[in-house]
């Protein structure tokens, strides 16, 4: 285990939706890197059970609370929940997320007989909706295009870049450093939050690629 970057050494990472595949996978990787992790879920009991399993598997510091408790406990809070409940959850949790860096990882996608497709969002993207609902938080978009299957497999290499979007340089630098704690992953600044739509929508293309090629595809940015 490599030493944590100084800016992350004293930070607790909360993962809302931490009992689902993507949230659970990210939590596993962060705990394995030596970060303190709090899982959030609608059910505190389920969060605690999942946290205990991850703590045993990684030897890390992982605890579980309901979403409100995890929001209050985290210094950096990842939102890894289904799009359908995104707006309602953030509206409810806004007081607990004030003053914190909130990393929105949600992809507004639909599925039909032709496959996955990006949904239109009134605010422009899930990340921009989060910013509108959380005026007292610093919202960053990241971790949209990372395979949950690879994150959850401790033997798998997660060979991908993570595009980090936001309007606060200190916050995007911190989230890039957070991405860098996962072996094989590199955090890359991807522009202002207004550019989050195409990054979220790209997940539909990656799902289509995965289905065609039976893969767990990611992205790499060249010449950086």
TrEMBL record:
Q: Keyword annotations for this protein? A: Oxidoreductase
Q: Where are the transmembrane segments?
A: none
Q: Which domain of life is it from?
A: Bacteria
Pyrroline-5-carboxylate reductase catalytic N-terminal domain location is 12-108
InterPro entries, sorted: NAD(P)-bd_dom_sf, NpdG, P5C_Rdtase_cat_N, STEAP_metalloreductase
Q: What is this protein called?
A: NADPH-dependent F420 reductase
